[in-house]
Write a structure and sequence with these properties.
Blueprint lengths: L8 H45 L11 H9 L20 E4 L2 E3 L2 H11 L6 E5 L5 H7 L4 E6 L2 H13 L5 E5 L12 E6 L8 H6 E11 L6 E8 L5 E9 L12
Parallel strand pairs: 3-4, 3-6, 4-5, 6-7
Antiparallel strand pairs: 1-2, 7-8, 8-9
Helix pairs in contact: 1-2, 1-3
Length: about 260
């Protein structure tokens, strides 16, 4: 009868050492991850308190508790490139590639509050970007439809939102000027890029009684955050709010 080979003693010792190291290392790694998550939660808390809820004197604070909870919850650092993650909770926009940006946290909160969204609403977003604004809205409404003209950004946003389990967001590549006719009408529309005028197709796709928040003004100049409301009879009213600066609404064929 053939017997098995004996395992050298030094290999047995090495295997034991590896098992012991892994047994000790795994809890340490888990503890480090927990500390990092706790620090990121603190950063979100500070962001909401110092930039949004208790905003500096020159800003109107955002007070809607649902909006503030959403901003505390969504991991903004996962919606920017790794090289910018350390600055993700800063009081400024950040580049996300292709000439686009993720908006300043205060502006995301303000526009969301201005829309006065409800849990049963269907919302159209023009300008998906990295998907951050859509993720915030997804915690507040029934459905979010987001259009992005830059294909690479749309695909990244779609994958990111799916991976992070924002299941009620749908993203497509398209010219946001024309909205999303197949999914219309919408209770609310948010436009995260500046248009020289409010696109007529978006007015058509807005439900009677609906609201739209959009930056309006010339490209690379000061625009005004504008609230558009559509009455039950279809009458359109527009009211300017604060001056802002957004990247321009890019059109198919390079138009702006």
């Amino acid at each position: 009868m053939q017997t098995g080979r004996k395992i050298p003693f030094h290999l047995i010792c090495l295997a034991g050492a590896i098992v012991a190291f892994c047994s000790e290392f795994s809890p340490r790694m888990a503890a480090a991850e927990e500390r990092q998550e706790a620090e990121l939660r603190l950063q979100r808390e500070r962001m909401v308190k110092e930039q949004i809820a208790d905003a500096p004197d020159y800003r109107d604070p955002v007070k809607d508790p649902r909006v503030l909870t959403a901003l505390r919850t969504v991991p903004r650092h996962l919606f920017v490139e790794k090289k910018h993650q350390s600055a993700a909770y800063g009081d400024f926009p950040l580049p996300i590639g292709y000439g686009q940006t993720i908006s300043q946290p205060y502006i995301v909160a303000l526009m969301t509050e201005m829309l006065q969204v409800q849990p049963d609403h269907k919302v159209l977003e023009v300008g998906a970007g990295s998907g951050y604004q859509a993720a915030v809205l997804s915690l507040l409404v029934k459905e979010v439809y987001s259009v992005e003209i830059v294909e690479a950004l749309a695909l990244q946003a779609e994958e990111r939102l799916r991976r992070l389990k924002y299941a009620n967001v749908t993203v497509k590549v398209g010219d946001g000027y024309f909205g999303w006719e197949e999914a219309a009408p919408f209770d609310r529309i948010i436009v995260t890029c500046a248009a020289s005028l409010v696109p007529p197709p978006l007015l058509v796709q807005l439900k009677p009684g609906g609201k739209m928040c959009i930056p309006v003004g010339a490209a690379y100049s000061v625009q005004y955050l504008t609230m558009v409301e559509k009455s039950e009879t279809g009458t359109i009213t527009m009211k300017k709010s604060i001056p802002v600066r957004f990247v321009p609404l890019t059109r198919s064929g390079g138009e702006k």
